[in-house]
Write a structure and sequence with these properties.
Helix content is 22%, strand content 22%. It is an alpha+beta fold and 687 residues long. The termini are far apart. Keywords: Repeat, WD repeat.
């Protein structure tokens, strides 16, 4: 059976042995001569060579002739006769992109033309209606013409599908947008709900929240630092860790690192401490030498610390300020010595003490506010010798500038002064403040100010003044410097504020020892919202069986043991038993009890000594010489203590014997001496 030729692309295969070479195989091209024209490879008149062997299989791998390839592609009948089907599926639909683009362009032009014509018709109708009304004055005419020109411009710029019939373009979009912005500012403040955390009884002087918003750290004037976990806290609202970093020193500042794995605690002592996320101390900064005059020569601070912050980008660097007139940069790898020393100088060139310190948002500026009212900044990329920005009279001299914070755009910063003012500054022009607000009473040297997460508002707190009942949160618009809202926060001072950008919640440290968290359930997330939605855990009473008891069902009642469902009754009964409860001995009465005596001590030895002393006690009645001589005869006859020891070598005692005549002479001499000593009046009486 002769099946003919099969062609797969450019490869041909001849199944019949007697057939000639396929027409698709061209003859080899002749050598090209430059003088003669190049012949065509496949010509209609060219005939294939018939002298070649008929058993050749595959064809040429080169280019096929255009006529043969088209013939092989456009012969469905041959393909159906050879392989049994006419093709390999449906032919793909072809699209002309140029024509499609042209059609869409024309349709868009037509739609816009119709829309513009409709708007022109509406404007003509409005002009006719206004023309029928009485003519207004010149000012109204000018306003109408201006509004018409603006509407015409808006109509010309209008692009899009046509408006539905009866719908007109919006008017006064600017005024509506401004009113909406004011409403958004009012609604964006999370002050509708409040959650209280009990820190202690004294003022909460420092607060810090990690970047994720899961943990809060608070420090107060009661010398304690407390860790709060929003994820694991219930309605009991208890801190999971509390410790005292430096006994006797208030906590002036706490701050989380940019990664949230370390906490810097700055107390009133000379040494700052760094703790981990769970409140375990990692290291303590070294203390400097107070006897050195040059503060750059010491390895650490020598006076009370005032503030401390972490670098916003580097998790290993932090900054501290001190009453020794310096700010010091530290690195966690070298707690034994500071990295850099910054000396703050007053207007007269002498040293001044920094009250607070801060980095800007990208960490390129190091700033501090001093007790002489100045604000000084240094470039972090250069040496800290020359001041980059120096505002000499930012606040009143001698007042404690308690707050210094930078805006999120790094173009401005705000300061909270001890002179009861809040000022906004432009970092590009620091000669004068952009805005200033006075009359904000401040009693604490750690009252701060913060920017809102959208960078459009500034918030600060006030202390309770005479005649007031509560401290206030003052929210000021950054652009107009108008007070957006005043919120009274409990019957206490407002000292420390944090407005977290991720949680959209305001944490306030108050003067009554409470941390008040303000939030709005609709616009706030996590944090206090999680705690408010939880219930207090119920304490389960532990019921434990003391011992396993095997009870036989047919045992007599006299042999049964009591089954205790709880240990409470068993403990009460054991408490009455002095042996099981190990009850201490009661004090002894006068008569004594339990084998113990009351007099002469409570031990047996003291009792024996007392009785021996009573038994051998010598009564002091009569002459003591006679009492001793009473035992002389017994001691001479039965010596027991001293005499037997010296019996062999002790000589016999020899006493002097006196005569009677000598005794009489002695008595007469004594009488004469007495007479001589007696007074003369006594002698006359005797005569």
């Amino acid at each position: 059976m002769n099946r003919g030729k099969i062609v797969f692309g450019k490869i041909g295969f001849n199944l019949s042995g007697s057939s000639k070479l396929p027409e698709t195989i061209p003859p080899p091209p002749p050598p090209i001569d430059q003088t003669t024209p190049t012949p065509t490879l496949h010509d209609d008149t060219t005939e294939p060579d018939t002298t070649e062997s008929a058993t050749s299989g595959f064809g040429s791998f080169g280019k096929l002739s255009q006529d043969n390839t088209t013939a092989s592609e456009t012969s469905p009948g041959d393909l159906e006769s050879m392989m049994g089907f006419s093709g390999f599926g449906k032919k793909a639909k072809e699209f002309n992109l140029d024509s499609l683009v042209e059609e869409t362009r024309k349709s868009a032009v037509d739609r816009n033309r119709e829309n513009i014509e409709k708007l022109k018709l509406q404007s003509l109708e409005e002009e006719k209606r206004k023309a029928s009304l009485p003519t207004p004055n010149d000012s109204t005419k000018s306003a109408v013409t201006e509004s018409k020109s603006q509407s015409d411009e808006d109509e010309d710029e209008f692009i899009g599908p046509p408006l539905p019939p009866g719908l007109k373009p919006p008017k006064d979009a600017g005024s509506e947008a401004e009113s909406e912005e004011e409403e958004d500012k009012e609604h964006w403040l999370p002050t509708s709900h409040e959650l209280n955390l009990e820190h202690g009884t004294k003022t909460v002087s420092s607060l810090a929240v990690d970047s994720s918003g899961t943990r809060l750290v608070s420090g107060g004037l009661d010398y304690d630092v407390r860790y709060w976990d929003f994820q694991g806290m219930d309605q009991s609202k208890e801190a999971f860790r509390s410790f005292c970093p430096a006994d006797g020193y208030p906590v002036n500042s706490v701050d989380y690192s940019c990664t949230g794995d370390k906490v810097l605690v700055v107390s009133g002592s000379q040494q700052a401490k760094v703790y981990d996320r769970d409140g375990i101390e990692l290291f303590e900064c070294v203390r400097g030498d107070m006897y050195l005059h040059d503060m750059a020569r010491t390895k650490g601070h020598i006076a009370a610390l005032t503030c401390g912050v972490w670098h916003p980008r580097d998790k290993e660097e932090f900054l501290t300020s001190c009453m020794d007139g310096t700010c010091r940069l530290w690195h966690t790898s070298r707690p034994g010595s500071q990295k850099n020393v910054i000396k703050a100088r007053a207007l007269n060139g002498l040293k001044t003490n920094p009250i607070t310190c801060a980095y800007n948002r990208d960490g390129l500026l190091v700033a501090c506010a001093c007790d002489d009212g100045s604000v000084q900044m240094w470039d972090h990329r250069k040496s800290f010798v020359n001041v980059a920005i120096n505002i000499k009279t930012a606040h009143a001299r001698g007042s404690d500038t308690s707050g210094l914070t930078f805006a999120y755009d790094n173009r401005g910063f705000a300061t909270r002064g001890g002179d009861d003012t809040l000022k906004l500054w432009d970092i590009r022009n620091t000669k004068t403040s952009v805005h200033a607000k006075e009359g904000l009473f401040n009693r604490f040297p750690m009252t701060n100010c913060v920017f809102s997460p959208n960078d459009q508002m500034v918030m600060t707190g006030t202390s309770i003044n005479k005649g007031e009942k509560a401290g206030k949160l003052i929210v000021v618009d950054r652009n107009t410097w108008n007070v957006v809202r005043e919120v009274e926060v409990g019957p206490s001072h407002v000292v420390r504020i944090i407005w977290h950008p991720r949680l959209n919640q305001v944490m306030v440290g108050c003067g009554d020892g409470k941390v008040r968290i303000l939030y709005e359930p609709k616009i706030s997330r996590n944090g206090a919202v999680l705690v408010a939605g939880r219930h207090k855990k119920r304490s389960k009473q532990a019921e434990v069986v003391v011992s396993q008891q095997v009870i036989t069902p047919h045992a007599l009642p006299m042999f049964r043991e009591e089954r205790h469902k709880s240990t409470r009754k068993l403990e009460e009964r054991d408490r009455k038993d002095p042996i099981k409860s190990r009850q201490p001995d009661l004090p002894v009465g006068k008569a004594g009890s339990g084998g113990r005596v009351s007099a002469g001590g409570s031990t047996l030895s003291s009792y024996i000594i007392r009785n021996m002393g009573l038994r051998n006690k010598v009564h002091e009645e009569g002459d003591p010489r006679e009492a001793l001589l009473k035992y002389a005869k017994e001691a001479a006859e039965n010596p027991y203590w001293v005499t037997p020891a010296y019996e062999r070598n002790q000589p016999q005692p020899i006493f002097q014997e006196t005569d009677s005549g000598m005794k009489e002479e002695e008595e007469e001499e004594e009488e004469e001496e007495e007479e001589e000593e007696s007074p003369p009046s006594k002698k006359l009486k005797q005569q």
